Amino acid sequence: LSSSNLVYDWSITRGGVELPESQQSTSLQANVFLLEPFMLNTNILYEVTVAVTYTVSAKVSTRSIQVYVAPSDVVAVILGGSEITLQYLGSYVIDASKSYDEDIENTFGVAAGLSYSWSCAQSSPVLSSTCPLTQSIAANGETMTVTASSVSSNVVANVVVNIASGTRSSTAEISVTTVAAATPSVDILSSASEFSKFNVLNK
To answer: CA-to-CA distance for 120 and 146, rounded, in angstroms?
Structure first.
């Protein structure tokens, strides 16, 4: 039995209806059916069928398999690292807009159907559920601006963003340490020599 005498016909159905994806295999081998990523929807049961015809005798053999596309993860991302330092009254925008759903290609944040929730608590020098930072969350939830509103230095707050899509969720965290504002320095400059003498009438 030569493979050159075999003709393969693939199909994908959902609920008994054949889908256009049946004609979109990217495999260079006729006996392999291959789709590009993101072609099928998640939480859907598909049936993949191959009908093989032996051209010498015109006999046809058919096999089917059911394929369930399970959802992938959602991934929370905070841009710029996991630790920052803020001086008194300094502000910083914590940006989680690049969080994504692994099932959606090249789309991020709210545009990918993600919802956001934020929390903040003090972790040092003592644990406290009260956040030592002033917080302002953007209307779409993707970013939160924090301001070091306490004059105390070396206070550490942990800010957590939770992203969700349906029953899937993911968190990312950033540590914010407050430090005292820099002490200003003052110099007095004079064009006169350190040991210049002045006439009393010129003072």
So the answer is: 10
For 13, list phi and psi in degrees, rounded to 5.
Answer: -125, 155
Torsion sign (Cα): 56, 57, 58, 63: negative
CA of 104: how far to CAs of 72, 77, 78, 167, 188, in Å? 10, 15, 19, 16, 62
Q: Which pTM value belongs to this model? A: 0.77
Q: Is pLDDT above 90 for 155? A: yes
At residue 98, what is the residue type?
A: K
38, 90, 96, 162 from 117: Cα distances, Å? 27, 23, 11, 5
**Cβ atoms of residues 48 and 33 within 8 Å:** yes
The Cα 171–Cα 193 span in angstroms is: 63
Q: How far is CA 171 from the centre of its chain?
A: 10
DSSP one-letter code for 160: E
pLDDT in tens, 110-154: 999 999 999 999 999 999 999 999 999 999 999 999 999 876 788
Contact present, 156 and 120 (Cβ < 8 Å)? no
What is the distance between the alpha carbons of residues 100 and 26, in angstroms, rounded to a whole number?
26
